[in-house]
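Sequence only, no structure available. Ideas?
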Amino acid sequence: MEDTIFDKIIRREVPADVVYEDESVIAFLDIKPNNPGHTLVVPKNWSRNIFDMEDANLCTLITRVKKIAHAVKEALNADGVNIAMNNEPAAGQIVFHAHIHVIPRFIGDNREHKTYAPGEAAAIAAKIRAALT
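Reply:
I predicted one. Tokens follow.
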């Protein structure tokens, strides 16, 4: 097991804009989003990626991804969402703790990473949390 930035977020050693948490997963805004509201859904039980993840944990993770995807789409009035998981460096994985990206998409948007203005991430996280209730 590696000690990653996600483990530190789970333990609350590093701050994050958390939008959802239960006994199995934590979901928070990506700090380098493709679009504002880009959310990472991370299982609390560590696995490197899909290749060593237990089936039961993967099933739980994807059901939470579906719930969060609905909330992200609603909260941001997005035209759609991308659901993505990078597995191993060749596929773009840079944090070696399994996680799934929920990326809001808008007609005509580009795929470049964005940055948040001060306070913007917290406001967006609050909208997503509200859509989850």
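The chain has a mean pLDDT of 95.
Hope that gets you unstuck.
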